[in-house]
Write a structure and sequence with these properties.
Elements lengths: L1 H13 L17 E2 L1 H6 L6 E4 L3 E4 L5 E5 L2 E3 L12 E3 L2 E5 L9 E4 L17 E11 L2 E11 L6 E11 L11 E3 L15 E5 L2 E7 L7 E7 L12 E3 L4 E2 L17 E5 L2 E7 L7 E6 L10 E4 L9 E8 L8 E9 L2 H6 L7 E5 L2
Antiparallel strand pairs: 1-24, 2-5, 3-4, 4-7, 5-6, 7-8, 9-10, 10-11, 11-12, 13-14, 14-15, 15-16, 16-17, 18-19, 19-20, 20-21, 22-23, 23-24
Length: 357
Amino acid sequence: MSSPFRVAVSLTLGLCACRGGSDTAAAVRPGVSWPAADGAVRTSTTWRGGDAAYSVPLPDGRVLWLFGDSFVGAGDGTSGRAGRAMIRNSVAVQSTTDPATATWTFHWNASGTAAAPFFSGTADTWLWPGPATASDQGLLLMFAQVTASTQGLGFETIGSTALRVHDPSGPPTDWTFDPVALPPAPPGVQLGLGAHLRDGGFLYAFAPVEPGTHDVFVGRWELEADPLVDLRSIQWWTGAAWSPDPTAARAVTHDVQTEFSVSRVGPEFWMISTEGFGAVDVVVRTAAAPVGPWSAPRPLYRPPEFGRSDVLVYSAKAHPHLKGAPVVLTYNTNRTDFWDLAADLDVYFPRFVKVTP
């Protein structure tokens, strides 16, 4: 079991700007933990944790969650992780928009003799979930494509891909998927990572460079053009205007952990992430417009795991469609040792935080 986990940790390390947090006396951290929501996501006896934790509201009022590497299966019959498989991705459906009171159901491919990812890659690649968007035209899902490598940390991100669900009603196991061609992007930019934002008649994609600088570029589609079907109409922000030419695009901010969110909070836009990967704070960048200028990151919440050298904090993001607080965010935790992770049910479930601006 240790080999898949090492790949998973290596992948996450590669998808972020890896640095420790710093303690600043002027930091404002208005977030508070939400134990009731933490407990609700842990009620399954066969899904015992996963990371990434992107979410998207579905047209019928449910919420779809997309997880990366996940522990699934009956295992040894206990509530722990012993004997469970680690698969590359899984999904969950939250029955209402309140995560603390909703019913959670979890799904993966259980059709064979062994548990398998809900979203299949190829013989040589696997899919890690990224941002997703739902509308009356269906559900758009984006993924990073990852493969093993003999260089670096033993893997590399080789591209992005997208799927469309025409009818996301009913259980996810009944859905059908069609591939959606992604448009050309600036060099190194991955549309399968980062964040989506629906605002002012547009769908914005905040897409980071990976591997590399983790600079963030912004593209957008007019929602009337039905971007869930045809993504070729993307316009890229050049620093002064929108252009269909990806080579003219310019980054709007830099050095962002590549799993993050962008949402409107009052008159501002908030970009929420962790400050790198490891023993770090959850931070927020703010702007008056989706294209910025974006502020420097400011501490928003200090996880109780901050400062523990054996615990990794990463993949923070807001979920503006969730009820329970003005801003609801989650972050993920992991352990540096696989066997510690397998025994520690305090980590590897999404942690919920309530924020009042």
